[in-house]
Amino acid sequence: MSKQTKFLLNEDQMPKAWYNLQADLPKPLPVVLHPGTMQPVGPDDLAPLFPMSLILQEVSTEREIEIPEPVREVYRLWRPAPLYRAHGLEKALGTCAKIYYKYEGVSPAGSHKPNTAVPQAFFNKEAGVKRLVTETGAGQWGTSLAFAGGHYGLQVEVFQVRVSFDQKPYRRAVMETYGARCVASPSNETVYGRSVLAKHPDHPGSLGIAISEAVELAVQRDDTKYALGSVLNHVLLHQTVIGLEAMQQMEMADTWPDVVVGCTGGGSNFAGMVFPFIGHGLRGGPKPRIVAVEPAACPSLTRGKYAYDFGDTAGMTPLTKMHTLGSQFTPPGFHAGGLRYHGMAPMVSHARELGLLEAVAYKQVECFEAGVLFARTEGIVPAPEANHAVRGAIVEALRCKREGKAETILFCLSGHGHFDMASYQKYFAGQLSDESYDEAELAMALAGLPSVPEPA
Which residues carry this modification: N6-(pyridoxal phosphate)lysine (predicted)? Predict the structure, then answer.
């Protein structure tokens, strides 16, 4: 048996084009609706938020979309990212499965998020934009856009969900180091933020509220656009460099995954890893099981309703059909802040409806337990979000052990946890609990979904 641990690609093997799953889907995505008219949106409706180049990527059905050379030049700072064989974890589990992980924590921001932050900043710069506004949960996206904006000379303003703003002060420090401005959301800087604080002065915040604040600012100035770190098609598109590289690296390892696992909040790292494999299967290749792992305290895929909903809490964004807990839903303050979003990416949701993937939900403590085992066997401390993928991979490996199957498991380790050590300290002190959402609040949020007639 090969004991090779790292599988590395040369820079000239980096993908030259992103992969677009829309080209291979057996059924097209449901249309996106205007929040005011409830009619299908057109490019002009999105123009206040995004440059036209990104809008065209959002609606494209082309299988491949070229990665501009200036973007690939910045990608070379960390891409191609390594693929590892988890020999230590396999031994600790006593499994006959082979476990591989694609490690995205090698980026400047420590996660997969720069894969889309860089092209978004590039296309905005090309369009003459001067300022980008955004939201962030745990801070990985805000850090990434701060890095990308600084590279292209763009002003970046970040609304960080209050609970994460308080939990992760060093993420804020990194954003400021890159030149961005970061404020806690809900804030007094927007009309919507002030309205939330007037009702709930101690509101912990949510990604939906932070999105509302960022969108409110974006539409006020012609030199400003909005940037999003997950959910939208063009974001998932940019992330497919993960899976495209992993496919080459699995061939280097002379194997192919039977199971591909990723953590899911909005869906970006998950889609980036699995969409190329799903597309390969739809075109006649092998079809691995695809497993999305989400937090039990914010389970949009496993408990949410597949329906049209707003991407933000104020109802300013277009409506997309997705698995949602309701845009008014506020998740509890568990430590995987990047997974605290009420909805799942429309394309991930659509793939779930088509039976192309399955979903499971795990609790916070068992995910941290998995992350600690991974750190002690593989040497990398995962981010709390990535711990969900680690947990998912361990569950699959233990299943193989019970069944006596030597399957190949591939998962995306989407980021490191170096800015999340306070969470680990709480885990070791026995102060980390399994947060639960309020069933009554969830029922109310789902009951408040917008009434949308199904488009003809």
Answer: 113
